């Protein structure tokens, strides 16, 4: 119970930071959204040209800085990886497709609920179903293999890239794009956002909070420890919104910021996100923190998320407040087929290897 209280408070701090960032200028119901923030970064780098979602989000940089700091202080910054990188890259792309059809990562889904967006209920139900499907593969033996020790420099790639992004954010060279309208133009002050991101990254590294992991453990092994962290995020964000953002708080389906009311595709988009999160071993937030610890498998996942965000806008897959695009629907259907095929293929290979070992013994 003591550990549950601790992680509840950790989650609560993350939820409160989300409300503060929204009050300070981040888009509505988007104090923190890992998928949306990577999308904005992809746009700022010119990987897509959707002018309303282009900005180098300092919160992501802060997550990585905070994760590095916590990992170094805890003796957990270690170079590791090499576990099926191409599969992780593909899964990350489809995860981003699902999230941008829903319009938010699993963390934003919780924050949307905490600000009264009832559309996120369908996202939550889809996410839970996706996690349940992912657990089905885990029970059959799904595994992308063990990470092994890597060269030291591989651990520093993502932190170095985050430093590079910070320099681009501060210098603002002409080849970097910044939105002048839309969600990309709605920003908390840079250094405050960076500091709050750093605090969040530090907490997330120490607590291991993961939305996919929390629901997975509750369903698979009846361990509710991480669910307390998710509950903390929701409750503290709800309280923070009622205090700081009451003027925008509304319990409804309609007229919610950066959201649409197509319930079927809110549901199916998050089914895809849930499956991919389980097959990857963590939600986008957790992957970001793992990458900050020197995990190159998570690093390749982060790069896949950025590429997936670029594809989503270049190929008109991402949704908008007007609704879901035909390409978005097609991408989710194809994504569900592909990731299930990947899961089945990996399970078959794992079982085949097990049988070979048993025959040798």
Kindly summarize this structure in a few lines.
With 361 residues, this protein is mainly alpha-helical. It is 68% helix and 1% strand. The chain contains 14 helices and two strands, in the order αααβαααβαααααααα.
Structure overview:
- This protein has 361 residues and is an all-alpha fold.
- It has one domain (2-360).
- The chain is 68% helix and 1% strand.
- It contains 14 helices and 2 strands; from the N terminus they run αααβαααβαααααααα.
- It has helices spanning 2-23, 34-44, 58-73, 85-102, 106-114, 119-139, 152-171, 190-207, 211-220, 225-244, 263-280, 284-292, 296-314, 326-360, and strands at residues 80-81, 148-149.
- Strands 1-2 form a two-stranded antiparallel ribbon.
- The longest helix has 35 residues, at 326-360.
- The protein is globular and about 65 Å long.
- The chain starts with a helix and ends with a helix.
- InterPro entries: Seleno_YedE, Sulf_transp_TsuA/YedE.
Short descriptors:
single chain, 361 residues, mainly alpha, 2 strands, globular
- Uncertain regions spanning at least 5 consecutive residues: none
Mean pLDDT across the residues is 97
User: Regarding quaternary structure, how should these chains be classified?
Assistant: single chain
Radius of gyration: 19 Å
Total DSSP E strands: 2
Largest β-sheet summary? 2 strands, antiparallel
Overall morphology: globular
Strand content: under 5%
Secondary-structure element pattern, one letter each: HHHEHHHEHHHHHHHH
Give the helix/strand class: mainly alpha
């Amino acid at each position: 119970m003591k550990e549950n209280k601790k992680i509840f408070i950790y989650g609560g701090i993350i939820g409160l930071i989300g409300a503060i960032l929204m009050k300070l200028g981040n888009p509505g119901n988007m104090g923190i959204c890992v998928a949306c923030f990577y999308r904005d970064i992809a746009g700022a780098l010119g990987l897509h040209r959707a002018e309303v979602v282009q900005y180098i989000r300092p919160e992501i940089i802060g997550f990585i800085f905070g994760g590095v700091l916590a990992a170094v202080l805890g003796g957990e910054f270690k170079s590791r990886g090499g576990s099926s990188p191409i599969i992780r890259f593909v899964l990350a792309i489809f995860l981003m497709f699902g999230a941008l059809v829903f319009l938010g990562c699993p963390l934003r889904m919780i924050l949307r609920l905490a600000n009264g967006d009832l559309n996120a209920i369908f996202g939550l139900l889809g996410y839970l179903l996706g996690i349940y499907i992912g657990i089905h593969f885990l029970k059959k033996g799904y595994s992308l293999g063990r990470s092994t020790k890597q060269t030291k420099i591989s651990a520093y790639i993502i932190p170095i890239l985050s430093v590079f992004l910070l320099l681009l954010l501060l210098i603002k060279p002409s080849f970097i794009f910044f939105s002048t309208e839309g969600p990309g133009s709605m920003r908390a002050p840079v250094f405050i956002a960076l500091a709050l991101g750093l605090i969040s990254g530090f907490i997330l590294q120490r607590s291991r909070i993961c939305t996919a992991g929390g629901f997975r453990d509750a369903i698979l092994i009846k361990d509710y420890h991480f669910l307390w962290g998710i509950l903390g995020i929701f409750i503290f964000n709800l309280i923070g919104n009622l205090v700081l953002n009451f003027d925008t708080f509304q319990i409804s389906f309609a007229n919610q910021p950066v959201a649409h009311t197509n319930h079927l595709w809110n549901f199916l988009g998050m089914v895809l996100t849930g499956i991919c999160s389980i097959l990857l071993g963590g939600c986008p937030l957790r992957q970001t923190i793992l990458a900050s610890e020197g995990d190159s498998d998570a690093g390749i996942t982060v790069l896949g998320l950025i590429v997936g965000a670029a594809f989503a806008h270049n190929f008109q897959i991402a949704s908008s407040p007007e609704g879901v695009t035909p390409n978005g629907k097609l991408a989710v259907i194809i994504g569900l087929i592909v990731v299930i095929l990947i899961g089945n293929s990996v399970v078959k290979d794992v079982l085949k290897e097990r049988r070979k070992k048993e025959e040798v013994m």
